Amino acid sequence: MSASPVMAQPAPSDQAGAPVVLTARGLGRDFHGFTAVSNVDLDVRHAQIHALIGPNGAGKTTVFNLLTKFLQPTRGQIELLGTDITRMKPEAVARMGLVRSFQISAVFPNLTVLENVRVALQRPDNLATQFWLPMGVLDRLNDHADSFIDRLGLAEYRDTRAGDLSYGRKRVLEIATTLALDPKVLLLDEPMAGMGQEDVQMVAAIIRDVARERAVLMVEHNLSVVADICDHVTVLQRGEILAQGDYDTVAADPRVRTAYMGTED
Predict the structure, then answer these.
(1) Are 86 and 187 found together in one domain?
(2) Would you say 203 and 143 are in contact if contact means Cβ atoms under 8 Å apart?
(3) Are 153 and 166 in contact (CB under 8 A)?
(4) Domain presence at residue 6
(5) If we measure between CA atoms, which residue out of 15, 28, 20, 47 comes closest to residue 241?
C-alpha cells in the first residue's frame, strides 16, 4: 500500500478529541439472505476527514447508502449530531445537514457555474418552493454564490456552462453546490475517480480546506490521497471492518495488505 505524495496540507494529528458528529453502531444490511454489511461501527468527527476504503465489493457504497438513508439498515443504529436517524427518510437527514455527492457528477450541464450554485442555494435561502417568483429574484443570491465560486477557485469559470468544464472542474463545482447546502457532515463518494494528477492535487487541497469547518467522510480508491489528507481510515472487507486507525497504522496491517494485494509482502 505505497503512496506517492499529493500536494495538500498534511492531516492534523491532534484532533482525537474533536466531537463525534456521525456515529454508526452494529450497522448491517441484508439483501434476500445475502449480508452486504455486517456489524459496522463508525465515529466521524468534526473538522476531520475520515476515509472508507477497501477492495471492490467491500460494501463501501452500501455503507454510504445506509448512512444517508437511501437504504434502510437491517440492523444497527445511526446518530447524526446526537439524534437517532436510523428510521428517518433521506430528505429529513439532508435537512439536518448530512449531504453527499455521488460517483457520477451531478451538475446541470446547460446551466452556468453561477446558476448551478444558485440552484443549490435556493433551499437554504427558502426559495426552493417559491416557484411562482420571477427569475430575477434569484439575482439576490449572486453574492452568496460568488463566495463559494471564489473560494473553490472557479471565479474564471463563473459564466461558463457546466457542460463545458473539464472533468476535474465539474467535480469542484459539485463540491461547491454541496457546500451551498451548508452541510454539517459531507459525504464524498470517490471524488477523485477518473481524474488526472493535476486535478487530484487540486481537489485534494479543496477537500482539506472545506474539512476545517465540517466533518468529511469519503470513499476513495486513490491511496496517495488517503495517506496525505485523511485523519482516520476505516478498511472494509466483505462488508465488515477489517482495520481502523490512521493511514500508517492500517497500511502496516498484514490483513489489509492481503486484502488489497493478496500477499502480506
Answers:
(1) yes
(2) no
(3) no
(4) no
(5) 28
The reply to whether 195 and 88 lie within a common domain is: yes
Inside any domain, residue 152: yes
State how many domains the chain has. Answer: 2
Q: Are residues 86 and 190 in the same domain?
A: yes
In this structure, the answer to whether residues 62 and 121 fall within a common structural domain is: no
Residue pair 203/192 in contact by the 8 Å Cβ criterion:
yes
Total length of the chain: 265
Which amino acid belongs to residue 257?
R
Identify whether the C-beta of residue 40 lies closer than 8 Å to the C-beta of residue 24. yes
Q: Which domain covers residue 235, as residue numbers? A: 20-97+183-261
- Give this prediction's pTM: 0.85
Question: Is residue 178 a contact partner of residue 117, using CB atoms and an 8 Å limit?
Answer: no
C-alpha grid cell for residue 102? 455521488
> What cell numbers appear for 221 in the block?
480508491
158 and 28, same structural domain? no
Q: pLDDT 10s digit of each residue in the chain, 265 long?
A: 645 444 334 334 345 579 999 999 999 999 998 999 999 999 999 999 999 999 989 999 999 999 999 999 999 999 999 999 999 999 999 999 999 986 656 789 999 999 999 988 886 544 444 444 445 566 778 999 999 999 999 999 999 999 999 989 999 999 999 988 889 999 999 998 888 889 999 999 999 999 999 999 999 999 999 999 999 999 999 999 999 999 999 999 999 988 886 655 4
Distance from the Cα of residue 27 to its chain's centroid: 19
Which residues does 126 contact at the CB level (< 8 Å), separation at least 6? none
